Amino acid sequence: MREDAVSDGRPLRVAIVGAGPAGFYAAGALVRQDEIPVAIDMFDRLPTPYGLVRYGVAPDHQKIKLVIRVYEKTARDPRVRYFGNVDLGRDVSTADLKELYDQVVYAVGAATDRKLGIPGEELSGSYSATEFVAWYNAHPDFADHRFDFEPRSAVVVGVGNVAVDVIRILAKSREELAATDIADPALEALAASKVEEIHVLSRRGPVQAKFSAAELREVAGLENADVIVDPADLALDPLSEKELADDPAAQKNLEILHQLAERPAAGRTRRIHFHFLVSPVEIVGTEGRVTSVVIERNRLEPRSDGRLAARGTGEREVLEAGLVFRSIGYLGVPIAGIPFDRKRGVIPNLEGRVTNAEDAHVRPGEYVVGWAKRGPTGLIGTNKMDAVETVKHMLEDAKGIDRSAGEGAAAIAPLLSERGVRWVSFADWEVLDRLEQERGSAPGRPRVKFLRREEMLKALSRESG
Ligand code: NAP
Asked: Does the domain formed by 6-111+332-424 have CATH 3.40.50.720?
């Protein structure tokens, strides 16, 4: 049990909304400092903690998921409580949190996907990577989604690390996928997949690709797929040559792409074709289903900010494909009561202090971390530095808070009970975690994930009864 009172005033009460990496790094930075005593309540709308580490990181990247051990340590700290299955907006409002806590941190990520804005994007068979990734990772909101892997040919738009995750999951064999904690329905559907050709579209050149070399190497090493790169696509214009000279990451990527261009195909089951300097301009369908994608060749042009942008040349061709995965980045969504910068898809802020969208004034007591703060970029670890910056400002501001009175955070549990919210504590989550791992032990998998909230809550009542 944590103590809510200390001799020199009660602890600073902090609510963190969102229990993904950003939320946990913020909680971690708060419990590690000893300037100001803290009492932290973390909320997540899902019963399960860890956000994108559980529902975003690919199931064949179990090593990356080991970062959860760091978050577990924070969650088990007596100064931290976890309230899963509590939805900001439905179960508690921002006004409730501002009343009960001295400081509120929004760690709400970027929940949706960017749109291509081309005709045919909404056809059946055209999916966002966001929904595909959430589905294969057993995100409860996607339990009823269906993906059709009957078509022989798929297009993946975008060349970031998410696109590479999508490519691997589409390309891997049943045996490879069965060794992971991929959602059961996804395992079954992908095991029966007829996809043989995977066309990857990059609107700019190989130097501007966003994937990291480690991810590209994994694609190169796939047992089940040949990777096809046209050497002509690797010929660089002078401006890309210049960019390459200053970019060691791009140099590594290009080296791997050159090796792939020289590698003869080995007759593997699937083929991954990289296409550079092309954009999809229309997704074509028959009877509401995707049948092909019209692509246009691009050239690179410098913009005023120095970035090389893709410009269409008018030269078009048609790629036959029954599936499209749009992997062009995540996007934040507005939440009632919290300012939102529509252009950038983030909560407006000054180094983590939330500001009004209209006049940029700082809103006392409100903070932001992670993708909701800086947009959907960076690796998991990037959120750590980012949280440290926000927490530094929280501690500076906390010095001006009167911590001598108020019952505050103690009131949250009764409030939730009164509203009929069945929240999931960290101890509850540890039960679910154990059950998932037990379900996975016979088939030799890391875990078999629960697919639905109700399933999790039922399992918890069974265990406690
Ligand atoms: P990302 O890295 O921003 O990549 C988005 C891709 O979409 C880029 O290739 C971008 O091209 C392209 N794109 C954007 N708008 C487009 C349009 N209208 N038409 C065609 N292409 C378009 O985003 P992400 O892949 O979603 O990844 C998000 C973050 O998570 C990244 O920081 C990533 O590194 C990280 N992540 C890491 C891992 C890992 O380490 N294993 C795994 C997954 C994700 P332009 O460059 O031309 O804009």
From this structure: yes
